[in-house]
Amino acid sequence: MTEIERVIERPERIKERIKQRREREREQEREVVECPECHSRTLERDYERAELVCGSCGLVIETNIIDQGPEWRAFDSDQRLRRARVGSPMTYTIHDKGLSTMIDWRNRDSYGRTISTKNRAQLYRLRKWQRRIRVSNATERNLAFALSELDRMASALGLHQNVRESAAIIYRRAVEQNLIRGRSIEGVAASALYASCRQCSVPRTLDEIGEVSRVSRKEIGRTYRFVARELSLKLHPTSPIDYIPRFCSGLNLDGAVQAKSISILRAASERELTSGRGPTGVAAAAIYIASIQCDQRRTQREVAEVAGVTEVTIRNRYKELAEELDIEIIL
Q: In whole angstroms, how far apart are CA 53 and each of 32, 92, 270?
């Protein structure tokens, strides 16, 4: 074999070795999810002995496992913040996704020591210019205002972080496709939050979104339909079952009433009694029936106030459910 042939062959060998090494690493990193002996999934990691042990039969599945956690210990939140060497995770709820530098408002250094008076003027100037350069163009100003408005509305409604993240992603997509032009930022932000609530199965009505936003219910609905059509959002009709946990919590009803209400709604859905009717009214009627059956009676007015519907709606819906499902109600 000539020298040229050896030179040509060498890269092929290197590629083959790299491929074999990567395959071995994948085999080593492949996580064990069940016990090979009893097929149980209750696996426990004993980091003191560096073993992976089955919690059911006690079989030691792996030894010399690696602890992926930090090498330091912290006994309170301040100590954890001082010893951590990474920042907060990336988030879409901040206009720069949380990746920019943050100068804290407290005049303390990274060790918690007070900064001297001589250096405070310099720190003040740095903080001022940091605020200015974080928002550099019109798009970032738009996002900064809209995402702060989203966070305010989500906090007022008590929504979880995943709903906020989903709403921020929808709003960013609307900005990328230039759907904001000619419409108010508050209206698009409110419609994004409404769509996010439906996507995450924690629905809120347009009236509830309108109460915490600075735009009317009519504008939110119109903007939502436009954004959903332009972004091709596949949103299924809201199910009355999604409202049950929140309404039961507002009425201080236990899990038995909640389970009974869900079973009533499922039976009604099978007979297509929920189609063409407002989901909040149907959910309120099911809770009213279940509260009577479980001996935790609530009046129609109490249920109506929590559900945001009228007493007449509850009366009409519960009579329909009771008649079609052959439910006997003793008033």
A: 11, 38, 46
**Phi-psi domain of 109 (left: phi exceeds 0; alpha: psi -120 through 50; beta: other):** beta
Q: What angle do CA 152, 153, 158 make, to 5 degrees?
A: 100
Is there a domain that residue 87 lies in? no
Instruction: Give CA separation, 140 vs 133, 148, 187, in Å.
Output: 11, 12, 18
Domain annotation covers residue 11: no
Query: Is residue 267 within 8 Å of 310, Cβ to Cβ?
Result: no
Domain residues for the domain of 264 are 240-324
Q: 5 exposed, middle or buried (CB, 10 Å; 0-12, 13-18, 19+)?
A: exposed
Residues 201 and 267 in one domain: no
Residue spans of beta strands (DSSP E) within the chain: 43-46, 51-54, 60-63
Distance CA 247, CA 287 (A): 8
Cβ–Cβ under 8 Å, residues 188 and 263: no
Q: What is the pTM of this model?
A: 0.68
Q: Residue 96 falls within a domain, yes or no? A: no
For residue range 9-62, list pLDDT tens digits in order.
Answer: 455 666 677 777 667 656 554 566 778 888 787 888 887 788 888 888 888 888
The CATH number that applies at residue 38 is 2.20.25
pLDDT score, position 27:
58
Helix (H) or strand (E) holding 279: helix 279-293
